[in-house]
Every structure is written in structure tokens, then in C-alpha cells.
Amino acid sequence: MFRDRLEELARIKEPSARSELVRLLSAQYADKLEREPSDTERFLFSSLVLDVFDQLDHSVRLDIVVRLARTDRITSALADRLATEAFDLSEAILEHSPVVTEETLVDVVRNRTDRHRLAIARRDKVPEKIVDALIARGAFPVINALVQNDGAQFAVRAMLALLILSNGDQRLLGAMAQRCISDEEFREDLRLVSQTDCPLMPAELEKALD
After folding, report:
1. Consecutive sets of 10 residues in the chain, 210 residues long: mean pLDDT of each?
2. pTM
3. Alpha-carbon distance values, 34 to 29, 31, 37, 74 (Å)
């Protein structure tokens, strides 16, 4: 019965039929939790969605995001496409998808809004390259979320950028001090910067580190 319904929908060329076909397939695909899909299944499902993406109703695109955004059951190509959609579709991909590419995330950071940047700043892991881009483009809520995110990785250049920004923002200085309490590596990196007599180091933070 299910297969017959899929074959019937596949023969209809109307966009509504395409949407219903993908809706049924995504539900079936996502609900098979007893085993992980094979690479072939993952590729075929994602390729089908991408092939008819422009014909899909917004509700069907959202259904795919709700079911699959937090999983590796879609390809990077599909995750990247969803990441460029309107924010209600892209938010979960930006914040949770394990398969969205770093290149796409950096592009979103550079070209979209602080709402998009904030979603990325909340990811479980934020590599140094993305952290650099977020600090360069983000407002305080974005940078504050990064500093509070234990999965955000700060290179030396990111540390220096934080120090520059914190000289004019007591809120950020407080967030950095709190991160020092909870993150030994972050604290030691800042201590190393302090020991170079860096003129960017706020006096209050340097005193606390000492």
C-alpha cells in the first residue's frame, strides 16, 4: 500500500504531489531508528530532496528540518542548502547539524544576521576559524554566547580581539572572567598573553589572573 502510494505520487507532476511524496519518504526515512541508514540510502534520499527542492512546500522543508537537522542522516549538500534558507528553516541546521560544512557556516557568519550568528555560536563545537569570523562580525550577544560556550575554540588572534573589545565593554570583561573560572585552558592562554606585557590586557583582568 505504501509503495503503491509513492508510485502514484511519483507519476504526478504537480508540485503538491512532489511535496507529499517527499513528506512521506522523509517520515519513513527518519522513523527507521532501529538502524543507521547506509551511505547509499543517505545519498539517495538527500539527492531526491535536492532535485525537487524548489517544488517543495515550506511545510515539507520544515518537516525535514524538524526530523533530521540534528542527525547525520542527510548529506552535507542538503544540510548546506537548508542552512541558506529562511531563518525558521536554517536555525536548527546552523545550531545542531553535524554535517553542515565549515565553509557554509563561515559564509553565513559573514553574510547573514546576528540571529544566524547566534545560532552558530551555540553549536556544541565551534572551530577556531568560525570563532574568528563570529568575533569579527557579531554583536555582544553573539560574542557573549561564544565566551560562555565551552565548545568554542579560541586562537591567539581571537583572544586578542576579545581583549580589544573588552576594554570598552564591562559585560564582556565579566564574561571572560567567568570563563577563566570554569575553563583552565582559556585561563592559561590569557595568562600567557598577560605575561607578554600585552598593552591590550585590561588592568582588572590582569590583576585577577595574577
Report:
1. 51 70 81 77 92 91 94 96 96 98 98 98 97 96 96 92 88 90 88 81 74
2. 0.88
3. 11, 9, 10, 17
